[in-house]
Amino acid sequence: MDRILDFYRMQESDGFYLFWMKELLVALIVFALFWVLAVVVRHLLTTWGPRLTARTATDLDDRILRRITPPASLLVIFTGLYVAVRTLPFPEKGQLLISGIIFVINVAIITNIAYRMTSELLDWYAARLGDRDRGGLDRQLIPLTEKLISIFLVGTALIIVLKHFNYDILSLVTALGIGSLAIGMAAKDTLANMISGFTLMIDRPFRIGDRIQLTSGQWGDVVDIGLRSTKIKTADNTLLIIPNAELCNTTLINLAFPDARTKGRVNVGVVYGSDPQRVKDLLVNIAGEVSEVLQEPRPEAHFVSFGESGINLSLFFWVEDYARVFPVTDMINTRIVNRFRECGIDIPYPTRTVFLEKEE
After folding, report:
1. Which of 77, 98, 259, 295 lies 20 to 30 angstroms, CA to CA, from 4?
2. Contact 280, 301 (CB under 8 A)
3. How many other CB atoms sit within 10 Å of the CB of residue 21?
4. Cβ neighbours around 209 below 10 Å, total
5. In what helix (H) or strand (E) does residue 233 lie, and over which residues does it extend?
6. Are 295 and 288 spatial neighbours (Cβ–Cβ below 8 Å)?
7. pLDDT, tens digit, for every residue of 282-334?
8. Residue 355 domain-assigned?
9. Structurally, how many domains does the chain consist of?
10. Does 270 share its domain with 238?
């Protein structure tokens, strides 16, 4: 305040221009020092920074360093401009306007630096998850996380700017809280599905491309995990759309977890009088002749029950990919029918014997 009063008093004296020249010179010196500092910072980040980051095992720090070097030096320059402007004896409103504009620019640069750092971190993490988990998570979770971080950074920057200009932030936060509560109550089902979608992306009971079976018996391949619903492509080429809240609160079977191998089963019956051990050995040999049946674990055949018309056996086998279990089952069934016919083993038909008593 005293500097401003001196400014108005000196307007009436011959020393006014001398005073301005002195203050302007001080501001230029301050700005020049910060300019030199920006050059030094840029030189350190481009010359010595890569030498330090080259010693680490990952390239994450190298990528972050390349992204933040330009705005970091620019931040030093605008910080010097802000300090230089604050040294000039402008009127209060003019001082507030000019320094406020520069302050907003500095906040924007800092926000941009934070966004670049988080963006590189998320891209690096998504690449690692993509190599390990077939890219299911980075396609869904990473873009959502990036959007949430962007909203958080912009909101934080806005609050800092408003606080700098002495705006009442408490009333703004209160209004946003009441508005969010009203929106949450009006769209509780939608929010429940969105939260459930985020839970599915984090917990990952299934991934895109996995084949799952629901408690209703429906099954298919997961083609998309959205914020509101999950899309499943069924065997008859139809799209099953299920709200995420239902998937989070139900029991399902993931046929693709922990790997794509799956176990197939063929049930067959033979007439009484057949040798069970011979039939079991024949079933195992038939499964072993199919190239897509895995030899480890080996196929197994078991005598499971006595039927009304014959004995019931089951053949168990493994295939490399769950999508091939039905074609492999078809090949095994065809071979069983032909081989049983060649070996004289009969598959029984359901029969009923009816006795009629003649009344005398």
Report:
1. 77
2. yes
3. 10
4. 13
5. strand 229-234
6. yes
7. 999 999 999 999 988 899 999 999 988 889 999 999 999 888 888 999 999 99
8. no
9. 3
10. no
